[in-house]
Automatic annotation (TrEMBL):
Protein name: Pectinesterase inhibitor domain-containing protein
Organism per entry: Lupinus luteus
InterPro entries, sorted: Invertase/methylesterase_inhib (IPR035513)
Length: 175
């Protein structure tokens, strides 16, 4: 099963729509295209496997930027909640995106899960920022978008292969 899931990542892009645009359409997030179109690796990806790797690279980079930002905010506003953001939530986000990248070729379900939970930390930090009357920075929103991109892409493909397997099993029973 893992070989089938991994092999589909090499599926080429259709000629009408770029891969990243189709993934953004699945997220239904209005800022998705704007975030991704500035990265030439993402916009030029020729298959979903490469796109997934490039998305995770960008996600890890953005998470590191967010971590730096949260540490600076914590120095100015030393609340317990911001301490958790700076010293726990964001480091865990970085680790989750990094783990997802390492798992991409071996275990796509785990990679998808790790990418999804990576977005949880920055979401908690929105509350911490609100507590000290600060706006949610674009970096938090970007991480949320990247987390969703990875999750919707992998979840949809896993569902597709599960349906295909069910159809094959039903067809075999009819014989």
């Amino acid at each position: 099963m893992a070989v089938i899931l991994i092999s589909e990542y090499f599926e080429p892009a259709s000629s009408d729509e770029s891969l990243y645009r189709s993934v953004c359409a699945e997220t239904k997030h209005p800022e998705c295209i704007q975030l991704l179109q500035s990265n030439p690796n993402i916009t030029n990806a020729k298959n979903y496997f490469d796109l997934s790797g490039f998305l995770l690279d960008l996600a890890e980079e953005k998470a590191k930027e967010g971590h730096k930002y949260m540490k600076e905010i914590y120095i100015k506003f030393p609340t317990q909640f911001l301490n958790s953001c700076a010293n726990s939530f964001y480091p865990n986000t970085i680790t989750s995106f990094h783990s997802a990248k390492l798992e991409l070729t071996e275990d796509t379900m785990t990679a998808s899960y790790d990418a999804k939970v990576a977005g949880d930390g920055p979401q908690y930090c929105v509350e911490a920022l609100t507590e000290v009357k600060l706006e949610n920075p674009p970096i938090n929103q970007g991480i949320e978008i990247l987390s969703m991109c990875m999750f919707v892409r992998h979840t949809r493909k896993q569902l597709y292969w599960a349906i295909q397997a069910a159809h094959r099993a039903r067809y075999k029973r009819k014989k």
